[in-house]
Amino acid sequence: LSCVGQRNRPPVLWSIRQSLNSLSNERRGTALAIRAGAALSRHAAGIIYNSRTAASQHENMGYSSDRTLVIPNGFDLEQLRPVAQRRASVRATLGVEDEDVLIGLVARHHPMKDHRTFLQAVAPLLHGHQRIRVLMIGRGIDRANASFAAQLAALGLAAHSHLILISESSPAEVHRLTAALDVACSSSAWGDAFPNVLGEAMACGVPCVTTDVGDARWIVSETGLVVPPADPERFRAALQTMVDAGSIGRRTLGEAARRRVEREFDIRDVGVRYDAAHADAASVRSRCD
Known about the structure:
The protein is α/β, with parallel strands linked by helices. The protein has eleven helices and nine strands. A six-stranded parallel beta sheet has the order 6-5-4-7-8-9, with helices on both faces. A three-stranded parallel beta sheet has the order 1-2-3. Helix 4 crosses helix 9. The longest helix has 22 residues. The chain starts with 12 loop residues before the first strand and ends with a helix.
């Protein structure tokens, strides 16, 4: 980091945790703030992005590139881990048998999360495969939500017994539920820079199917499957591949996913990188003064 713009002012580190495919997806006020940020970015001591994709997108919009730091999200690997007993307990509570393939999506009901694509992808699997179960978790994911209920009805899922909906859960409960999945998903159409649901599932030894948004492709790497956003047929095909892989194939991918999180996204290592960034900013301020 340089002294430009840093004299006689406390060091301020920005944190940007959103990808930026298009300002047309943003509210007017948010779009204006993003544009203003480009002009102001040279005054920041540093700009910490949690995604390499987001860093590149913001730099292309005029954000200062010599302030860029990329530090991915980190995960508590003691809290998030494969536990056979926990998996069995959760599945028993949900009425999911060990032979069933449980596909899950954790996301609040919002256009950015693109539940429509996910539902269009899983509907043929639910209608055509007796051993498929789908678990959806997030604020607004219930049949009392008129918009969501209409999507279910249009796909013949309004009363499907193999679709499990949980609208509100604590983070700890979401982690327990995630560990019981066979396949975890992210169907976001835009906005996500570093989908935490992927890292959380991978830490629990669960392979993922995700849309290619933010750093999702880099996060899952060879341990999961990546499809274009808003493409339900490609999403369905990827899920079918996971189903066809069988329990051994999915377990092998899940074990590789766990190792990847241990190597790249351990919260302890991420904390060290944040400490270093703060120390560097303070050091620049000291030299500039």
